[in-house]
Amino acid sequence: MSRMRVLTGTPMIKALACGMLEDNGRILFLVRTDANGAERIEMPCVLVHSGRSPHAEIKDAFPRLTGIEDCQVHEVIIEGRHNSGSRKRRATVPVLVFKITARNRTAKPSNGFSGFKWLSFDDAKGQRLTRNAEWLRKEIRRVGLEGKTDGKE
Fold it and tell me: Which residues pair with 78 in a beta bridge?
């Protein structure tokens, strides 16, 4: 008799969905402080597993991560690649950055973060990035986003 296989464990990661809230040429970044006290920044983002919608996931995660309740998720404005695996065993997935708008832009980050910063892309290049934001450094160079945060692209 043959045995039937049953899928167990976590589903495969399909994408990394990020939300970009812009205000006068500056973008909202969340700040994490690691064990050594070094501050690292990242955009509000969530890993999307197979069978889930990236739009729905960022729509649920953005208010929870930032504390901004009246946000609206719009179209994808930046696409990139992210290594969701280890450095030894790479598993690259697409990064989808959604445009976010909100009337009330006062952030109250969740417990996993130590604060937030409003930075332009040029300023963000010089900051330390978290693992989920490493793709950002490559995208800024590849797409040429330096100096294009004036809101008029």
Answer: 97
